[in-house]
Amino acid sequence: MNADPETPVAVTVDGRDVTIGSGSTILDACRAADIETPTLCWAPNLTPVNTCRVCVVELEGSRTLVPSCSRPVEAGMAVQTDSERVRHSRKMVLELLASGVDLAQADELAGWIDHYDADVERFGPSVERIDEPVRIQDDLYIRDYDKCVLCYKCVEACGDDAQHTYAIAVAGRGFDARISTEFDISLPESACVYCGNCVGVCPTGALQFKTEFDLRVAGEWRPDDQSLTTTVCSYCGVGCNLELHVQDERIVKVTSPEDHSVTSGHLCIKGRFGWQYVHNVEPGDSPRE
Known about the structure:
Blueprint: E1 8-13, E2 16-21, H1 26-32, E3 56-59, E4 66-67, E5 78-80, H2 84-100, H3 107-115, E6 135-136, E7 141-143, H4 153-158, E8 168-171, E9 178-181, H5 197-201, E10 207-209, H6 210-217, E11 227-232, E12 241-247, E13 250-255, H7 269-273
Parallel strand pairs: 1-5
Antiparallel strand pairs: 1-2, 3-4, 3-5, 6-7, 7-10, 8-9, 11-12, 12-13
């Protein structure tokens, strides 16, 4: 759109009048109207890729449902976010996802599955899964392809939206499609720089800190008991903000605020993983007395 992104545009969302900048999306308009809309492949610090289709809405005059995360607003738009057609589409997308992917750690999606009364067993209990062991190559993060919904967030974070490393992409077709390094080589041999930005945007636990994975395996991962402390990374003078997730007086993982002006939620390997010195312990070692 060539319009000034700050030019006010009047639209209607579920019968509510909303005035929002012309550079905004329908999703922005929904949120301005305090209307919750499910998303999966969308994130505030990434470019929309329109792959998941859980955010679709009904637009007056449009033959098909449109993705709210990427469709720009236009003056006079009339949008329905909770019509029977929208609910049916979102419900089916969630059922299809749940039929072939382990969503046990996708808490936000679980909430929407309940909201739309999606039947995760609709396509049968014996649906095909990737069913391969969790890939563990180091003490930084793990890859669990049974939890991957191909939302492309990790690819975007590794590429143009953050790191510009391009170490991963979608490989294969159909059910065999998955996120992979070039020729499926190991991470240390790939272009990966271990920034962990892919881990930071993963919505399902397919990518997660090795510390979190180990605690989950031991049955000791307790998010409700964790405190969150914001601090500034100590490694250089850029000023990246870190969110320290602390459980039992130990850091268990590090994130960064998505709205932080320096990081936009992204970090380098030092900020993301280089916090073991706080506990005077090397990765893989036991804490010293």
